[in-house]
Amino acid sequence: MSKPIRKAVFPVAGLGTRVLPATKTVPKEMLTVVDRPVLQHAVEEAREAGIEHFVFVTGRNKAVIEDHFDMAYELEDTLRRRGKEKELNELLADLPKAGATSFTRQQAPLGLGHAVWCARDIVGAEPFAVVLPDMITLPGKNGKRCLAQCVEAYEKHGGNIIAAETAPKDQLHQYGVLAPGQDFGATFEITGMVEKPPKGAAPSDQIISGRYILEPSIFKILEKGEKGAGGEIQLTDGMIALAKKRPFHGVRFDGKTYDTGSKIGFLAANVAFALARPDIAPGFKAELKKIVGKI
Question: Which of 33, 151, 199, 265 has the CA that lies 20 to 30 A from 276?
Fold first, then answer.
């Protein structure tokens, strides 16, 4: 029987250069989609998937992330005194339980693989999830977001799980691409993967979409510090090495993923998440119609 997935690693040390100047003083993970920081959406997805411990790999000038997941005494007291119980309850509901968050520092931008390796002592000897907070998701037909679907696949197959989505052929060179083997419908065996293949050389149209479940043996591979694309320690390279010894399966996520690390993706996420909110959607649709009518 597979061990349960209790911990999730959130690499949040990036600089957010694709959305400058907004990220000059505000971490990209704290930019808001509707009324919540991008990172809060990712944490909520993890919580829905059964994650109990949230591990943040941070960098310099990211202290506001730690503050966001802590109590805010002055704000909470002010809301109480003013009788704003609804706002207070919403604020408190977003807080993780005491002891459910850990923060560790990635002191140099050495790549995603290095960021994950920085969490090794907190994760320990158990399988864990990796959640790229730039990528936020809305549920598909089964009502579950991406990480919950990954956990279901892990409970079925064990081993290692990678979330996958279909990408246009002319964009495959921008992503990590999976080579599928035996097909199980919503999931498939992974027989290979490549990081940013040359145009026309991708093994399929299935790209890695920012959600992973990995066995702790990945840490022994990442600690070698072998550099790959861009001179960085790539998580994909570590997974390729691990796949020579351990099984990997892909999950065809049937919802929608938004890359908030790009300006277009960030704007699209705000629209999509607002339209998914019953309390906001009616008024927002009316405003959208006014704007679209002028295009």
Answer: 151
